[in-house]
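Record type: monomer structure entry
Structure origin: computed from sequence
Chain ID: A
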Amino acid sequence: MTGLHERHLAVSPDWMALYYRHPLELTHGEGRHVWDVDGNRYLDFFGGILTTMTAHALPEVTKAVSEQAARLIHSSTLYLNRPMVELAERIAALSGIPDARVFFTTSGTEANDAALLLATAHRGSNQILAMRNSYHGRSFSAVSVTGNRAWSPTSLSPLQTLYVHGGVRSRGPYAELSDERFIEACVADLEDLLGHTRDAAALIAEPVQGVGGFTAPPDGLYAAFREVLDRHGILWISDEVQTGWGRTGDHFWGWQAHASSGPPDILTFAKGIGNGMSVGGVVARADVMNCLDANSISTFGGSPVTMAAGLANLAYLLEHDLQGNARRVGGLLIERLRAVGAGSPAVREVRGRGLMIGLELVRPGTDEADPEAAAAVLEAARAGGLLIGKGGGHDTSVLRIAPPLSLTVAEAEEGAEILGEALHAAG
C-alpha cells in the first residue's frame, strides 16, 4: 500500500471506492492517454467516467480556462456573466426544446436534482416514474429515483418512485420479444401502472443507461411512452449526463433515437461538456423552468471559468465533427470487440452505439453475471496499458468502454487488442 493510499483511507469515507487492488495515481494526460506517478502510460477508454469527452489537455480548453482565470474566476449568478449567457444560448439552440431556458449546476447529480424540483413543482406531485436499472446521481432525491441497488444506499425518499420496464433490452420478462412487441409490452405496462397511481409528475430516463451497464431499449420506446405521458400531462425528463454531446454517434442527444413524439420537456446534462471541468445543467421549456415561486440561484453553477471551458470544448467538438468520429470509430471498435467477445465464453453480449460500449460477462455456460470476472479483466487491462470502467444491474459484471470522442482508428484497434488479451488472461 502506497503512502498516498494510506492517507486516502485515513481521511475518506469507506464507501468512496477506488478502482484496482493497488489504486492508481494519475499525474497527467494528453490526447487519449494518461500517465501514472510511476511513469506508466495508459490508453484511456473511460475518460474520468465519460467526462474527458474530447481529449486530455486539449489546448483550446486549457487556453480558455487560463485566460478566463487570469481575468475573473468567480462572481455567482447574481451578476451578469457573458460566458454563461453565450454557452446557454448555444445549448438552448442545440437542445431541440422550443423556447428553452438553461440553468447551470456543478454536476449531473445536481442537474437531475433541479429537474426533479422543477417537475414536482410544475405538476404539484411528488410521484416520479423511473426506469429499472437506472442511475441518476448521489443526492437524496437522485438516489430515490435510481433503480440500481448497488447505488441506492437508503430506501428513505422525498419522492414516491414507481419503476417502469424497458431500460434493459436483453434481460427481464420481455427479453425474448421482438423489438416491436417489446415496445408494445412496455407501453402496456406503463398504461397499467398509471391506472393504479395518483397523478405522476414526470418520467426520468437515461436514453442509454450508464452505470447500469450501457443498456438501452429499442429505438422509439420513449417516443411511445411520450404519447402515454402526454395524455396524462406527465413530463418527460431525459437524463443526458452520459449520452449527450454526440457520444452515441448516431445522434447528438440520446433522446433523438426516440424523437417521433418530439423533444423531452426537460433535459439534463453534465460530464463531457466541461471536458473535466465541473459543469452540469438543466434545459426546460420556459413554462416549466419558470414555475418556481421562490428565489433560487447557483453559487458555483455557471462559473466564468467552467463556462469558458464549456464554450471552447463545445466549439471544438462541433468544428471537428466528433459526433461523426464517434459514429465511425465507435462502429469499428464495437466490431472488433464483438470479434473479441465471440472468442470468449465469458462474454454474454457486446452492446452499445458510438463510443459508449458495454461487454457483459457471465459465468461460462450460464446466464449468471460474473462480477469477479469483470474485476479481473479490469486489472488485466490495466496491466496491459488500458483503462476501462465497469458497471451493471443486479451485479457489477459489465465492462464499460467510453473513450474520448477524438479516438483514432489506430487507438481503437490497440484498445480492442489489449482488451482481448485481458479477457484471455483473466479467464
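Annotation 1: The chain has 13 helices and 15 strands.
Annotation 2: The two ends are 26 Å apart (CA to CA).
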